[in-house]
Write a structure and sequence with these properties.
By secondary structure, the chain is of the alpha+beta class. Helix content is 18%, strand content 38%. It has two domains: 141 residues, 3-Layer(aba) Sandwich (Rossmann fold), CATH 3.40.50.10330; 135 residues, Sandwich (Tumour Suppressor Smad4), CATH 2.60.200. The protein is built from six helices and 19 strands. The strands form four sheets. Strands 8-7-18-15-10-11 form a six-stranded antiparallel beta sheet. It has a six-stranded antiparallel beta sheet with strand order 14-13-12-9-16-17, with no helix packed on it. Strand 10 and strand 11 form a beta hairpin. The longest helix is centred in the first third of the chain and has 14 residues.
Length: 294
Protein backbone atom coordinates (compact mmCIF):
# COMPACT_ATOMS: atom_id res chain seq x y z
CA UNK A 1 0.00 0.00 0.00
CA UNK A 2 3.03 2.29 0.07
CA UNK A 3 2.48 5.29 -2.18
CA UNK A 4 -1.28 4.80 -2.34
CA UNK A 5 -1.92 8.32 -1.01
CA UNK A 6 -0.12 10.84 -3.21
CA UNK A 7 -2.55 13.78 -3.17
CA UNK A 8 -3.79 14.85 0.26
CA UNK A 9 -6.75 17.15 0.80
CA UNK A 10 -6.99 19.13 4.04
CA UNK A 11 -10.21 20.26 5.71
CA UNK A 12 -10.24 22.40 8.88
CA UNK A 13 -12.94 23.31 11.35
CA UNK A 14 -14.55 26.40 9.89
CA UNK A 15 -13.92 29.62 11.78
CA UNK A 16 -11.56 28.12 14.38
CA UNK A 17 -8.24 30.03 14.38
CA UNK A 18 -6.53 27.28 16.45
CA UNK A 19 -6.84 24.92 13.48
CA UNK A 20 -4.39 26.99 11.42
CA UNK A 21 -1.31 25.91 13.37
CA UNK A 22 -2.13 22.21 12.88
CA UNK A 23 -2.85 22.74 9.19
CA UNK A 24 0.54 24.42 8.72
CA UNK A 25 2.30 21.51 10.46
CA UNK A 26 0.50 19.09 8.16
CA UNK A 27 1.36 21.08 5.04
CA UNK A 28 5.05 21.18 5.99
CA UNK A 29 5.23 17.50 6.93
CA UNK A 30 3.39 16.25 3.86
CA UNK A 31 5.41 18.50 1.57
CA UNK A 32 8.62 17.08 3.03
CA UNK A 33 7.35 13.65 1.96
CA UNK A 34 6.96 15.01 -1.61
CA UNK A 35 3.17 14.71 -1.52
CA UNK A 36 0.78 17.10 -3.20
CA UNK A 37 -1.25 19.04 -0.62
CA UNK A 38 -4.52 20.84 -1.42
CA UNK A 39 -6.59 22.88 1.03
CA UNK A 40 -10.34 23.06 1.19
CA UNK A 41 -11.28 26.60 0.14
CA UNK A 42 -12.62 27.44 3.61
CA UNK A 43 -9.53 26.02 5.32
CA UNK A 44 -7.32 28.21 3.14
CA UNK A 45 -8.55 31.20 5.14
CA UNK A 46 -6.98 29.72 8.29
CA UNK A 47 -3.37 29.75 7.03
CA UNK A 48 -1.14 32.38 5.39
CA UNK A 49 -1.81 33.00 1.71
CA UNK A 50 0.22 30.75 -0.57
CA UNK A 51 0.71 27.96 1.99
CA UNK A 52 -0.86 25.45 -0.42
CA UNK A 53 -3.19 25.28 -3.39
CA UNK A 54 -6.91 25.33 -2.58
CA UNK A 55 -10.12 24.06 -4.17
CA UNK A 56 -13.84 24.01 -3.49
CA UNK A 57 -14.92 20.94 -1.49
CA UNK A 58 -16.39 18.94 -4.38
CA UNK A 59 -13.34 19.44 -6.60
CA UNK A 60 -11.04 18.71 -3.67
CA UNK A 61 -12.77 15.37 -2.97
CA UNK A 62 -12.44 14.34 -6.62
CA UNK A 63 -8.74 15.27 -6.74
CA UNK A 64 -7.62 13.69 -3.43
CA UNK A 65 -6.51 10.16 -2.54
CA UNK A 66 -6.92 10.92 1.17
CA UNK A 67 -8.60 13.75 3.04
CA UNK A 68 -7.36 14.77 6.49
CA UNK A 69 -9.91 16.55 8.65
CA UNK A 70 -8.64 18.82 11.45
CA UNK A 71 -11.18 19.55 14.18
CA UNK A 72 -13.46 17.10 15.92
CA UNK A 73 -16.34 14.74 15.26
CA UNK A 74 -18.59 17.62 14.16
CA UNK A 75 -16.11 18.57 11.46
CA UNK A 76 -15.88 14.90 10.44
CA UNK A 77 -19.67 14.73 10.08
CA UNK A 78 -19.66 17.79 7.86
CA UNK A 79 -16.84 16.39 5.74
CA UNK A 80 -18.41 12.94 5.56
CA UNK A 81 -21.65 14.25 4.12
CA UNK A 82 -19.82 16.23 1.45
CA UNK A 83 -17.17 13.77 0.22
CA UNK A 84 -18.59 10.26 0.61
CA UNK A 85 -19.98 10.03 -2.91
CA UNK A 86 -16.49 10.75 -4.28
CA UNK A 87 -15.22 7.61 -2.53
CA UNK A 88 -12.26 9.35 -0.87
CA UNK A 89 -11.31 8.12 2.64
CA UNK A 90 -11.14 10.43 5.67
CA UNK A 91 -8.61 10.63 8.51
CA UNK A 92 -9.50 12.76 11.53
CA UNK A 93 -7.10 14.86 13.63
CA UNK A 94 -8.92 15.52 16.89
CA UNK A 95 -8.41 18.98 18.41
CA UNK A 96 -11.25 18.61 20.90
CA UNK A 97 -12.29 15.92 23.31
CA UNK A 98 -11.80 12.22 22.59
CA UNK A 99 -13.70 11.52 19.39
CA UNK A 100 -15.40 8.49 17.90
CA UNK A 101 -14.54 9.55 14.34
CA UNK A 102 -11.56 11.91 14.71
CA UNK A 103 -9.15 9.70 16.64
CA UNK A 104 -5.60 10.96 15.94
CA UNK A 105 -4.21 13.40 18.51
CA UNK A 106 -2.09 16.40 17.41
CA UNK A 107 0.75 15.16 19.64
CA UNK A 108 0.98 11.85 17.75
CA UNK A 109 -0.08 13.26 14.40
CA UNK A 110 3.15 13.14 12.42
CA UNK A 111 4.22 9.73 13.75
CA UNK A 112 0.88 8.10 13.06
CA UNK A 113 0.53 9.88 9.73
CA UNK A 114 3.91 8.51 8.60
CA UNK A 115 2.78 4.99 9.50
CA UNK A 116 -0.46 5.45 7.57
CA UNK A 117 1.35 6.83 4.52
CA UNK A 118 3.69 3.82 4.69
CA UNK A 119 0.69 1.49 4.51
CA UNK A 120 0.24 0.70 8.21
CA UNK A 121 -3.39 1.55 8.94
CA UNK A 122 -6.89 0.20 9.33
CA UNK A 123 -9.74 1.11 7.01
CA UNK A 124 -13.42 0.69 7.74
CA UNK A 125 -16.68 1.64 6.07
CA UNK A 126 -19.71 3.22 7.75
CA UNK A 127 -23.35 3.45 6.69
CA UNK A 128 -24.81 6.82 5.69
CA UNK A 129 -28.47 7.76 5.46
CA UNK A 130 -30.12 9.82 2.73
CA UNK A 131 -33.17 11.89 3.65
CA UNK A 132 -35.61 13.37 1.16
CA UNK A 133 -38.50 15.71 1.98
CA UNK A 134 -41.56 15.09 -0.21
CA UNK A 135 -44.67 17.25 -0.45
CA UNK A 136 -47.00 15.15 -2.54
CA UNK A 137 -44.79 14.12 -5.46
CA UNK A 138 -42.60 17.22 -5.22
CA UNK A 139 -39.05 16.73 -3.93
CA UNK A 140 -38.32 19.75 -1.75
CA UNK A 141 -35.02 18.96 -0.04
CA UNK A 142 -32.43 16.22 0.34
CA UNK A 143 -29.40 15.64 2.55
CA UNK A 144 -27.13 12.84 3.64
CA UNK A 145 -26.48 12.04 7.30
CA UNK A 146 -23.58 10.22 8.93
CA UNK A 147 -25.12 10.11 12.42
CA UNK A 148 -28.86 10.64 12.23
CA UNK A 149 -31.94 12.11 10.63
CA UNK A 150 -34.29 13.68 13.20
CA UNK A 151 -37.88 14.78 12.61
CA UNK A 152 -38.82 16.97 15.56
CA UNK A 153 -40.90 19.85 16.85
CA UNK A 154 -39.73 23.38 16.21
CA UNK A 155 -40.19 26.29 18.59
CA UNK A 156 -43.34 24.89 20.20
CA UNK A 157 -44.07 23.59 23.69
CA UNK A 158 -46.27 20.71 22.58
CA UNK A 159 -45.82 17.34 20.95
CA UNK A 160 -46.19 16.64 17.26
CA UNK A 161 -47.89 13.64 15.67
CA UNK A 162 -45.91 11.44 13.32
CA UNK A 163 -46.91 8.47 11.21
CA UNK A 164 -44.03 6.02 10.75
CA UNK A 165 -43.91 3.47 7.93
CA UNK A 166 -41.27 0.82 7.22
CA UNK A 167 -41.09 -0.28 3.58
CA UNK A 168 -44.61 1.06 3.14
CA UNK A 169 -46.03 -0.82 6.15
CA UNK A 170 -47.45 1.17 9.06
CA UNK A 171 -45.28 0.81 12.18
CA UNK A 172 -47.11 3.28 14.41
CA UNK A 173 -48.59 6.72 14.80
CA UNK A 174 -46.89 8.47 17.68
CA UNK A 175 -47.24 11.69 19.62
CA UNK A 176 -43.83 12.79 20.81
CA UNK A 177 -41.23 15.53 20.58
CA UNK A 178 -39.89 13.77 17.49
CA UNK A 179 -38.17 10.70 16.08
CA UNK A 180 -34.46 9.94 15.63
CA UNK A 181 -33.40 7.59 12.83
CA UNK A 182 -29.73 6.80 13.47
CA UNK A 183 -26.95 4.81 11.85
CA UNK A 184 -24.72 2.58 13.98
CA UNK A 185 -22.27 5.50 14.01
CA UNK A 186 -25.00 7.78 15.32
CA UNK A 187 -26.26 5.28 17.89
CA UNK A 188 -23.69 6.68 20.34
CA UNK A 189 -24.89 10.27 19.83
CA UNK A 190 -28.39 11.81 20.14
CA UNK A 191 -30.07 8.39 19.89
CA UNK A 192 -28.20 7.17 22.96
CA UNK A 193 -29.38 10.13 25.06
CA UNK A 194 -32.93 9.27 23.96
CA UNK A 195 -32.63 5.76 25.41
CA UNK A 196 -31.58 3.93 22.25
CA UNK A 197 -29.12 1.02 22.11
CA UNK A 198 -25.50 1.16 21.08
CA UNK A 199 -25.00 -0.53 17.70
CA UNK A 200 -21.67 -1.90 16.56
CA UNK A 201 -20.43 0.19 13.60
CA UNK A 202 -20.17 -2.92 11.43
CA UNK A 203 -23.90 -3.73 11.64
CA UNK A 204 -26.06 -3.23 8.56
CA UNK A 205 -28.82 -1.68 10.63
CA UNK A 206 -30.30 1.55 11.88
CA UNK A 207 -32.33 2.41 14.97
CA UNK A 208 -35.53 4.41 15.40
CA UNK A 209 -35.67 6.24 18.74
CA UNK A 210 -38.72 8.29 19.81
CA UNK A 211 -38.01 11.57 21.61
CA UNK A 212 -40.05 11.92 24.81
CA UNK A 213 -43.02 9.85 23.52
CA UNK A 214 -46.48 10.32 25.02
CA UNK A 215 -46.88 6.54 25.33
CA UNK A 216 -44.30 4.54 27.28
CA UNK A 217 -45.06 1.63 24.93
CA UNK A 218 -43.26 3.47 22.14
CA UNK A 219 -39.77 2.00 22.35
CA UNK A 220 -36.55 2.14 20.27
CA UNK A 221 -36.68 -0.20 17.30
CA UNK A 222 -33.76 -1.64 15.27
CA UNK A 223 -34.32 -2.36 11.58
CA UNK A 224 -32.25 -3.39 8.56
CA UNK A 225 -30.52 -0.52 6.79
CA UNK A 226 -31.99 -1.96 3.58
CA UNK A 227 -35.41 -0.70 4.68
CA UNK A 228 -37.01 2.59 3.70
CA UNK A 229 -38.43 4.66 6.55
CA UNK A 230 -41.19 7.18 5.85
CA UNK A 231 -42.04 9.71 8.55
CA UNK A 232 -45.21 11.68 7.78
CA UNK A 233 -45.97 14.84 9.74
CA UNK A 234 -49.54 14.97 11.10
CA UNK A 235 -51.48 17.55 13.11
CA UNK A 236 -49.07 20.45 13.03
CA UNK A 237 -49.10 23.97 11.71
CA UNK A 238 -46.62 25.46 9.28
CA UNK A 239 -43.11 25.93 10.67
CA UNK A 240 -43.82 23.82 13.77
CA UNK A 241 -41.77 20.79 12.72
CA UNK A 242 -38.47 20.31 10.95
CA UNK A 243 -35.99 17.67 9.83
CA UNK A 244 -32.38 17.91 10.97
CA UNK A 245 -29.42 15.90 9.64
CA UNK A 246 -26.45 15.34 11.95
CA UNK A 247 -27.60 18.28 14.08
CA UNK A 248 -26.11 20.57 11.43
CA UNK A 249 -28.55 21.09 8.54
CA UNK A 250 -32.29 21.81 8.91
CA UNK A 251 -35.42 22.09 6.79
CA UNK A 252 -38.88 23.21 7.94
CA UNK A 253 -41.85 20.87 7.50
CA UNK A 254 -45.59 21.39 6.95
CA UNK A 255 -48.47 19.06 7.77
CA UNK A 256 -48.56 16.01 5.46
CA UNK A 257 -44.89 16.40 4.46
CA UNK A 258 -43.12 13.07 4.17
CA UNK A 259 -39.49 12.53 5.17
CA UNK A 260 -38.17 9.46 3.34
CA UNK A 261 -35.02 7.98 4.87
CA UNK A 262 -32.95 5.41 2.99
CA UNK A 263 -29.42 4.10 3.07
CA UNK A 264 -27.02 6.01 0.87
CA UNK A 265 -25.54 3.48 -1.61
CA UNK A 266 -22.11 5.04 -0.96
CA UNK A 267 -20.25 4.22 2.24
CA UNK A 268 -18.16 6.53 4.40
CA UNK A 269 -14.54 5.35 4.32
CA UNK A 270 -12.51 6.00 7.45
CA UNK A 271 -8.75 5.57 7.89
CA UNK A 272 -7.44 4.80 11.38
CA UNK A 273 -3.98 4.18 12.85
CA UNK A 274 -3.14 0.48 12.99
CA UNK A 275 -3.62 0.49 16.79
CA UNK A 276 -7.23 1.74 16.49
CA UNK A 277 -9.71 -0.10 18.71
CA UNK A 278 -13.35 1.01 18.67
CA UNK A 279 -14.13 -0.71 21.96
CA UNK A 280 -11.24 1.03 23.70
CA UNK A 281 -12.63 4.40 22.58
CA UNK A 282 -16.12 3.33 23.67
CA UNK A 283 -14.88 2.40 27.14
CA UNK A 284 -13.11 5.74 27.48
CA UNK A 285 -16.12 7.76 26.29
CA UNK A 286 -18.55 5.86 28.52
CA UNK A 287 -16.16 5.68 31.50
CA UNK A 288 -16.72 1.95 31.72
CA UNK A 289 -14.54 0.27 34.31
CA UNK A 290 -13.52 3.59 35.87
CA UNK A 291 -13.95 3.57 39.64
CA UNK A 292 -14.53 6.88 41.45
CA UNK A 293 -11.84 8.02 43.85
CA UNK A 294 -12.52 7.35 47.53
Amino acid sequence: MTGRFSTIGLIGKYGDPHVGETLLRLIQHLSERKLRVILDADAADLVPAGSADSMARAQLAAASDLMIVVGGDGTMLNAGRSVTDAGVPLLGINLGRLGFLADVSPEEMTTELDQILDGEYREEERTLLHATVLRGEERLYASDAVNDVVVHKRDIARMIELEVRIDGHLLNTQRSDGLIVATPTGSSAYALSGGGPLLSPSLNACVLVPICPHSLNNRPFVISDQSTVDVIVRDTGQDQAQVTCDGQVNFGLDSADRVRIERNPSRLRLIHPSKYNYFEILRAKMHWGVHPAN
